[in-house]
UniProtKB/TrEMBL annotation:
Keyword Transmembrane: yes
Transmembrane residue ranges: 38-59, 71-93, 99-123, 151-171, 215-242, 254-273, 323-350, 371-396, 431-453
Tree of life domain: Bacteria
InterPro entries cross-referenced by the UniProt entry: Cat_transpt (IPR003445)
UniProt cross-references to Pfam families, sorted A to Z: TrkH
Record-given protein name: Potassium transporter TrkG
Subcellular location: Cell membrane
Keyword terms, alphabetized: Cell membrane, Ion transport, Membrane, Transmembrane, Transmembrane helix, Transport
Topology with respect to the bilayer: Multi-pass membrane protein
This protein's record includes keyword Amino-acid biosynthesis: no
Amino acid sequence: MVTFQPRRLKDDHNGYFRLLASIRDFVDSFANSSPARLALFIFTAVILVFTALLSLPMSSSSGTVTPIHDAFFTAVSAVCVTGLTVVSTATHWSFFGQLVILLGIFIGGLGTLTLASLLALIVSKRLGVRGKLLAQEALNNASRLGEIGTLLRIVITTSVVIEVVLAVVLIPRFMLLGEPWWQALWHGIFYSISAFNNAGFTPHSDGLVPYETDLWILTPLMVGVFLGSLGFPVVMVLVQVGHRFRKWTLHAKLTVSVSLILLVAGTFAWGFLEWENSRTIANLSVADKTIHAFFASVMTRSGGFNLVDQNDMNTTTMLLTDALMFAGGGSASTAGGIKVTTIAVMFLAIVAEARGDSDVRAWGRTIPHSVMRVAISVIFMGATLVLVGSGLILALSDEPLDKVVFEVISAFATVGLSTNLSAELPPAGKYVLSALMFAGRMGTITLASALALRQRSTLYHYPDERPIIG
C-alpha cells in the first residue's frame, strides 16, 4: 500500500492543477466574451461576501448578529460607495465591522469595469481584445490598448497615494483635538478613504457637525471628494500635462468645466436659499455661512458628508440638492449620478440645435452622434429608476413625496445624504434602496460601455421621415 501512495499524491496534485486551469480558462473566456456581465457578477459576489462578514457577531459592537437586511444594506452602501446607513457606523459596528466597511469602500471605489479588468489580468495574466476595449472605455480611452494593464496599475497607485496624503493631513488634527494616537490614525485613514471614494461614511457618532468650522478637517475632505468625483482619466491628464489646458483631452475639459460651474452655482444657490434659515446657518457668521455653502455644494454631487440636518433645510433647497445629486460627478470616477459629461453633451446638443448646426462641437472637436445616443439612454434610464424607486417607496411607507424623492435620488446617485428615511423603512423598503444603489453604481456605467461596444454596421438605410417633436 505504501508503494502506491506517491502515485496517488501525484494524481491528486495533477487533478488540483487541472481544476485551477479549468477555472482560469472559464474566467478568461467569460471576461472576454461578456465583460459587462463579469463586472456585474463580481460586484454581486463582493456584496454577498461583505454581507456575510457584517452579519457576524464580531462585526457588531454588542457581539450580536446584525439582521440580514441591515447587513445587506450596509454592504451595498459601502461597495457602491454611497454612504446611506440604517444603523450608526460609529456605535453599531465594532472595529472589525468598520474595517469591513472601509475595505468595501476601497474595492467599490475602483469601479466595476476596473475591477473586472483586474480580475481578468490576475486570473489569466492577460486581457483579451474585448476586455481591453472595455477597460479602455472604462478609463475613457485614456490610453492605447497595449498600455491598459499598466494604466490599471496606475489607477490603483493613484488612489492609494491620494488617500495616504489625505490621511497624513487629517491625523495630526485629530491628535491635536485630544484623540489618542491610535484613534486619530484610524479616523484619519477612514475619512481619507471615505472622502476620495465619495462614500460619506463617518466613524464619529455625530458626524462632522463638531468640526463644522474647522477648515483643517473640512478642506482635505472637500479636496478628496472633488478629486474623486473628477475620475481617473481626468486625474491622469492633470498629472501628465498639468495646467496646460490646450493639451487636455475633450473629456477632461468637459468634466472640469462643468464640475466647476456646478460647484460655483451650487455654492451661491445653496447659500442664498439657506442664508436666513434659523434651523441651519442663519445664526452663523458670514465666513461660516460661506464655508457651509461651499461644503454643501461639493458634497451634494456625491460626497455625502453633511454639516446640517437635511430635514432642517428648506423645501426649495432639497429640490436644488436633488438636482445636484442627480447630476453627479465625472465618468469613470467614484461619484454617481448621470455624470457631468452627459449633461455637457446634451447641453451642447441643445445649443447646436438652437444655432441650426448639423454637428455638435466643443473646443475644436466634433462629438459623434453615437455619444449623444448613449447620453440620452443614460438620462432616460436614470429618470426611470428614480420614478420606479419613488413609487415603490411611497407604496411601502407613509412619508411625503419630497422626502422620498430625496432619499431615492441619493441612493441612485450614490450620494449618501439622508433625511433618515432609510433607517425608518421596513426591510422591503431597504431592499428597494439597495437595488437603487446597485443600479446607480453599475447601471449607467455598464449601459454606456455596452452601447459603446455594441456598434453594428448595416448594409441598407431606410428613407428619412421627420416626426413632429415638441
